[in-house]
Each structure stands twice: as structure tokens, then as C-alpha cells.
Amino acid sequence: MGLTLFLIITLTFFLVEAQPGDYASFYVLNPDLPPDVKEKIRAAFGLDKPLWQQYLIHLKNTFTGNFGVSFGHFPRPVMDVLAERIPRTLVLFLTATAASFYLGFFLGKAIAWRRGGLFEYVATISGATLFTAFTPAFALMMIWIFAFRLDWFPLWGNSWTRCGGLALDILKHMVLPVATLTLISFAGTMLLTRNSMLETIREDYVMAARAKGLPERQVRDRHAARNAMLPVVTSLVYSLIFAIDGSVIIEGVFSWPGTGMTLLSAVRSEDLPLVMGAMLFIGCCRCWLT
Questions:
Q1: Which string of DSSP letters, residue by residue, matches 43-99?
Q2: Counting beta carbons within 10 angstroms of the beta carbon of residue 73, is it exposed (0 to 12), middle (13 to 18) or buried (19 or more)?
Q3: Domains annotated on the chain, with CATH
Q4: Which of 61, 73, 159, 262 is buried most, with the most CB atoms less than 10 Å from its CB?
Q5: Is-contact 5 287, C-beta < 8 A?
Q6: pTM of full prediction above 0.85
Q7: Which alpha helices (DSSP H) does the chain contain, by range?
């Protein structure tokens, strides 16, 4: 895990530094600023040091938990910015993961129990189609249909900083990204549940439950589905990994003010301390879940 995080930090640092200019360029290029002020700005951000020295400073600060001050949210520390954004990402993606898991498990056990019917073909084809959909295009289509054309949900913006009607407004903004994540990810759980159920329903205890005259629904839910759940629950961990990896895309498209959108804006503005902090959070989540 330590080596993985080291590689993440190193690659992130040099990829950001490979971009032309730096964060201070937004101020240094201002012709109205005198030269001494420009030098003070670069020194304040630590950009006047050689590249290797900047790298060692960031490496040391990262492993000691001192990410410094965010350039774009100056003078707020990086940890304060991340502490504000990480819960928003967790709320969104844990909700979407739970919804996709429940939908996939419900459909999977249903199509396995009624194998060969029209419902199985429709659910399988629909799930496979959505699973292979291009996420940004599908997200934009959801916005165009449900927010722009039907006007059921807000197009953009959020009210995390407001107090009045906060919970209801957050829920309104969560519906589309959660629905998008659920629709593009439930197929994996559905197909895995189906395969696991097909193996389970051949077991002796399922046949014994049927021989006792128990209702079909009780046999399916209490005897077959419960025992088929083990490999499906294991796959839930991997779905969390892919959900976190896709946070930049989903949060960027839906303007959700979480870690992914923060990382995207930080990369654009070359806010290196914030980029390092956000990437370390994503890297730690991935290493911990795997």
C-alpha cells in the first residue's frame, strides 16, 4: 500500500507540473502588478524553489499529513477543503451503490427464479446495454430529458452553503446522479445474482423446502436468495472502487460539489496541494478496498 501511494503521489506531482505555467501565473501575468509583488506571490506559494525541492517538500508533507494551504481556497488548509467535500462524495456514491446493489439483487433473483421468460430477456438486454453505455453521454442525456425537457429536477447548482430547505434541495440534486450511477452499474450485480441463484436452487435444502410445501416466494427469498448472496456481497466492495474512480466524471457532469469535482477544478487551476490531497484520498480508498 505504501508503494502504491508513493507512486500515486509522484505521478500526480509530475503530471501537474508538466502542464504549462503554474497557479501563480494567474497573478504573475497581470501587467498591473510590480515585479517585487510577483516574486512575493511565487514565494508565498513555494513556486520559486527548484522542481526537485518542491517535490521533496510535497512528498514530506503528504506522508506527514500536512498538505499545506490550498492555492485556490487560500488561506484555507487542504484538509479543511477535503473535510468539507469528502462527506458529499460519500453520501452520493454510497447511496448510488446501495441503490444499484438492491436493484441488481432484486432483478437477479427474479430472473433466475423465472428463467426463460420475457422478463429475463428484457432485464438482461437492458442491463447489459446500460452497463456498456458511455457514462458522460448517458449522464448528459439524463440531464437533457429530466432536467431540461421535463424540468423535473434542477439543471445545476447546489445549496450546500444555504440553510433554508437544505435537505430537500440536496435530495433534488441527488436524484439524477444517483439514478445515473444506479442504471449504469446494476447489471453486474443482477447477472452475478442470477448465476449464483441458478446454482443455489439446485441444492438439496431448496428442494427440501419445496417438498415441505412452502410458498414459492418464501423458498426463493429465505432459502435460495440468502445463500446466493455471499458472492454478490463480495462484489459490492469492487463496485465501491469503481464508483469512487468515476467520481470525477459524475460530479463534473452534474456539478456535484464533492471530491471528484474538487480534484477536477484543482487540476485545471494547478492547485497542487489540493490535487495531492484529493488523489491521496482516492488512492487510500482504492488501496483499502482492494
A1: HHTTTTS-HHHHHHHHHHHHHTT---B-STTTTSBHHHHHHHHHHHHHHHHHHHHHH
A2: middle
A3: 2-63 (no CATH), 82-289 (1.10.3720.10)
A4: 262
A5: yes
A6: no
A7: 2-17, 25-28, 35-44, 51-63, 78-113, 118-131, 135-142, 166-200, 204-211, 216-218, 226-245, 247-254, 259-269, 272-289
